[in-house]
Design a protein that fits this description.
alpha+beta; 7 strands
C-alpha cells in the first residue's frame, strides 16, 4: 500500500510539472496553437506574430523566436514565400537591435536562417539552401548554445538526403546520431531516419530503404532500452527520495505534536489579545467618528466664515468707494476687500478644469513686461525669453499671477538690477513661466510662509500679504503649481508650472 502511494505521488508530480511547463506559454501562444489545431492557418499565423512581438517586449527572446519560426512556417505552408522572407528580414533587424552578447545574437539568427533554408529546400533550390546552411554553420560556431551545435548536424543530414547526396548524408548522419543519442535527443534522430527512408522510396532504391529501415529498427530497439533504463532509474530515485522524506517526517512527528500543542496555547493567548484589541478598536472607532464629526463641523464653520467675511467685504466695498480713494488707508482697505473676495471665491470654487484658450507666448510675455516698465528703478534691465509659439492656457489666471510676480520684482529689484521673464517647455504636456529678479531674495525661514494667508497682523497700508496666496490658489485651480526655486540664491525666482 505504501509503495502504491509513492507511485501515485510520483505520477501526480509528473502531471504538475507538465502543467507548469504549459503555463510558461503566454496566452497569445496558446491561442495560436489552438487556432492551428482547428485548421485556421491565417488566424494562427497572425496570433503567433502577436505572441512573438509580446515576448520580444518582455525580453523573452527564445520564446519570441520560437513563435516567429512557427509564423514563418504558416506563411510558406500556403506558398506565401515573399511574405515569409519579408517577415524574417524584420525579425533579423529586431535581433540586431537587441542589447545582447554576440553569441546570444548568433543563436537567434540561427533560427531565422534555418527557416530560410527550409523554404529553399521546399522550393527545390539546392544552391540557395546550401548558402543558408553555411550561414547556419557560422551561427552555430559562434553560438554558446549546445543544442544549436547538435541541431546543425541534423539539418545538414536532412539537406544531403533531400537532394540525393546519400554518401554525405550517411557520414553526417552517423556523427549526428551518435551525438544526439548520447544527449538523449531521440526525436531528432528518429526524424532523420524517417527522412532517409523516405528519400530511398522517392529514388526507388530498395537497398537503401532496406538498409535504412534495418538500421532504424536496431537503433529504435537500443534507444527504447535506454529510455526504459533512464525512466526506471529516475522513477527509483524519486521513490527513494519520497521514502526518505516520509521517514524524515515520521521522525519529526513527535516534535510537530509538541509544536502543535504550543501553537494551541499561543492561539488561546492570541484570542484573548484579540478580544482586548477589539475593545480598544471599538473605542478608537468611536473616538475617530467623534473626531470626524468635529473636523466636518470645523470645515463647515470655516466655509461659512469665509463666506461671511466675503459678504461683509462685498458690502463694505461700495461704502469705501464713496470715501477718498487717494487716502492710503482707504485704498488699502479697498485692496484688502477685493483680495478677501477673490481668495474666498477661489477657495470655494470646485476643482473643475478651468477654461483654456490659445495664447501666443512671446507677445503675451512682452505685454506683461511692458506693464511694469513705469514701476522699475533706474537702469534696471528687463528681459523676456519666450519662443514664438502658441500654448493653451487660462490667460486671465496666468496673466494675473505673472503680473503680480513682476510687480513684486519691480519693487524689490535695486538700481542696475535685472528682471527676467522666461518660458520653458519641460515636456509634452508640461511648461513653466519663470520670474527672476536680482533683489535681496527671500530668507529660507520665510520660504514656506509666503504662500500662507493671514500669517501675521500687519499694517494694511504696507500690503495685506494676500497677493501670493491668491496666485498660489489660481495656479492650483489650473491644475498646476506656484513655488520658489530653492536652487536660485542670487535674488528670487518664482516658478509657475502648468500642464496642458
Amino acid at each position: 500500500m505504501k509503495r502504491f502511494i509513492l507511485i501515485l505521488m510520483v505520477f501526480c508530480g509528473c502531471c504538475i510539472m507538465a502543467g507548469a511547463q504549459d503555463e510558461q506559454k503566454s496566452a497569445l501562444q496558446k491561442q495560436a496553437e489552438a487556432a492551428k489545431e482547428k485548421g485556421s492557418v491565417a488566424t494562427s499565423r497572425y496570433t503567433y506574430i502577436r505572441a512573438y512581438e509580446d515576448y520580444l517586449k518582455k525580453g523573452q527572446n527564445k520564446q519570441a523566436l520560437e513563435c516567429a519560426a512557427k509564423a514563418t512556417a504558416l506563411y510558406y505552408t500556403e506558398n506565401l514565400y515573399q511574405e515569409a522572407f519579408d517577415f524574417l528580414r524584420n525579425v533579423d533587424q529586431n535581433i540586431q537591435s537587441l542589447s545582447l552578447a554576440p553569441s546570444e545574437k548568433a543563436t537567434l539568427h540561427y533560427v531565422t536562417s534555418k527557416e530560410r533554408m527550409k523554404m529553399y529546400m521546399r522550393m527545390r533550390r539546392p544552391e540557395s539552401t546550401r548558402d543558408h546552411l553555411k550561414a547556419m554553420e557560422n551561427y552555430a560556431a559562434a553560438s554558446s548554445d549546445e543544442s544549436v551545435k547538435n541541431d546543425i548536424l541534423y539539418e545538414k543530414a536532412i539537406y544531403h538526403y533531400t537532394f540525393g547526396q546519400i554518401a554525405q548524408g550517411n557520414a553526417v548522419f552517423k556523427e549526428m546520431a551518435a551525438k544526439l543519442t548520447a544527449s538523449k535527443e531521440y526525436d531528432k534522430v528518429e526524424a532523420a531516419y524517417k527522412q532517409m527512408i523516405a528519400n530511398g522510396r522517392r529514388s526507388n532504391s530498395a537497398a537503401m530503404v532496406d538498409q535504412s529501415y534495418s538500421s532504424y529498427l536496431a537503433w529504435k530497439d537500443s534507444t527504447n532500452a535506454m529510455k526504459v533504463a533512464d525512466e526506471r532509474a529516475a522513477f527509483k530515485k524519486q521513490i527513494a527520495d519520497n521514502e526518505a522524506s516520509i521517514a524524515e517526517k515520521d521522525s519529526s512527528l513527535t516534535t510537530r505534536q509538541a509544536i502543535i500543542i504550543g501553537l494551541c496555547v499561543l492561539a488561546a493567548a492570541l484570542a484573548a489579545a484579540l478580544v482586548v484589541g477589539a475593545i480598544v478598536l471599538l473605542r478608537f472607532i468611536m473616538l475617530t467618528r467623534k473626531q470626524k464629526k468635529l473636523i466636518a463641523l470645523s470645515n463647515e464653520n470655516n466655509a461659512l466664515k469665509a463666506k461671511f467675511i466675503s459678504n461683509i467685504s462685498a458690502q463694505l466695498e461700495p461704502t469705501l468707494k464713496q470715501l477718498d480713494t487717494k487716502n492710503p488707508a482707504v485704498k488699502a482697505l479697498l485692496d484688502f476687500s477685493g483680495h478677501i473676495q477673490t481668495l474666498s471665491e477661489l477657495e470655494n470654487m470646485t476643482d473643475d478644469q478651468q477654461e483654456k484658450e490659445e495664447v501666443q507666448v512671446q507677445p503675451f510675455c512682452e505685454k506683461l513686461m511692458d506693464g511694469i516698465r513705469p514701476l522699475v528703478k533706474s537702469e534696471v534691465t528687463l528681459k523676456v525669453n519666450a519662443p514664438k509659439m502658441a500654448v493653451d492656457m487660462n490667460q486671465e489666471y496666468v496673466g494675473h499671477i505673472l503680473s503680480h510676480l513682476l510687480k513684486n520684482a519691480a519693487e524689490y529689484t535695486p538700481e542696475g538690477g535685472t528682471i527676467t521673464l522666461d518660458y520653458k517647455k519641460r515636456g509634452a504636456h508640461t511648461h513653466q513661466f519663470l520670474v527672476t529678479d536680482t533683489g535681496c531674495g527671500i530668507g529660507e525661514e520665510m520660504r514656506n510662509e509666503v504662500f500662507k494667508p493671514f500669517r501675521e497682523i500687519r499694517d494694511l497700508t504696507t500690503g495685506d500679504g494676500l497677493g501670493l496666496p491668491i496666485c498660489k490658489q489660481m495656479a492650483l485651480k489650473m491644475g498646476g503649481d506656484l513655488d520658489l526655486d530653492p536652487q536660485y540664491v542670487r535674488g528670487t525666482r518664482f516658478v509657475l508650472e502648468l500642464h496642458a
